[in-house]
Specification:
Chain A is mainly β. Chain A has no helices and eleven strands. In chain B, the strands form two sheets. In chain B, strands 2, 4, 5, 6, 9, 10 and 11 form a seven-stranded mixed sheet that branches. A four-stranded antiparallel sheet of chain B has the order 1-3-8-7, with no helix packed on it. The relative contact order of chain B is 0.34. The chains are: A mainly beta (110), B mainly beta (114). The interface between A and B is medium-sized, with 22 and 25 residues.
Chain lengths: 110, 114
């Protein structure tokens, strides 16, 4: 089982749609969780951290379920500029490194 | 604030040749990562430094890859000899600490082995 697994994608959605990405992780000792965004041929950039209580940043909502080892990202009212690859990232404090999922590609169409 | 600097941006070499990549992290960042990203995949961690010490190099192919961060600041990653399957983007990232706060990435070096 891979350490971090994501929906295979790609997701092709119209502008204004709501889209959800899912991610599971295998190491129950994982402590920190993130969603990164990567535009085509660019470097990954932090989109948002994920907290146990859930957190929201504008149109983006992240959720964490430690019992199920599951992370989600919800994007409401999709914009053309949201088109990118979304990477689920997990940190295990004992290892202190960031493990990336394969990423899910999102294309938002007019 | 200056970001993570990497060079070169692009490199084309023949198989069995050697190549080196350079990274200068954000000033004051103790943690430095090297990742390999093959087209269509997520970044794969090759090696992690804390200051000038190696924290994790379990996925570094040590028969051909080496990395150093001698003074705890900038770092080099070397491949010798290169194979076709080493074609990828090599990303350097830095973070203030090991506790999983935000990692900042450089623009990467795109390596093509022919």
């Amino acid at each position: 089982r891979k350490e971090v697994e994501q929906d295979p994608g790609p997701f092709n959605v119209p502008e204004g749609a709501t889209v959800a990405f899912n991610c599971t992780y295998s190491n129950s000792a994982s402590q920190s969780f993130f969603w990164y965004r990567q535009d085509c041929r660019k470097e990954p950039k932090l989109l948002m951290s994920v907290y146990s209580s859930g957190n929201e940043d504008g149109r983006f909502t992240a959720q964490l379920n430690r019992a199920s080892q599951y992370i989600s990202l919800l994007i409401r009212d999709s914009k053309l500029s949201d088109s990118a690859t979304y990477l689920c990232v997990v940190n295990t404090l004992s290892q202190g490194n960031l493990i990336f999922g394969k990423g899910t590609k999102l294309s938002v169409k007019p | 604030e200056a970001g993570v600097a990497q060079s070169p941006r692009y490199k084309i070499i023949e198989k069995r040749q050697s190549v080196a990549f350079w990274c200068n992290p954000i000033s004051g960042h103790a943690t430095l990562y090297w990742y390999q990203q093959i087209l269509g995949q997520g970044p794969k961690l090759l090696i992690q430094f804390q200051n000038n010490g190696v924290v994790d190099d379990s996925q570094l192919p040590k028969d051909r890859f080496s990395a150093e961060r001698l003074k705890g600041v900038d770092s080099t990653l070397k491949i010798q000899p290169a194979k076709l399957e080493d074609s990828a983007v090599y990303l350097c990232a830095s973070s203030p600490n090991r506790e999983g706060t935000e990692a900042f990435f450089g623009q990467g070096t795109r390596l093509t082995v022919v």
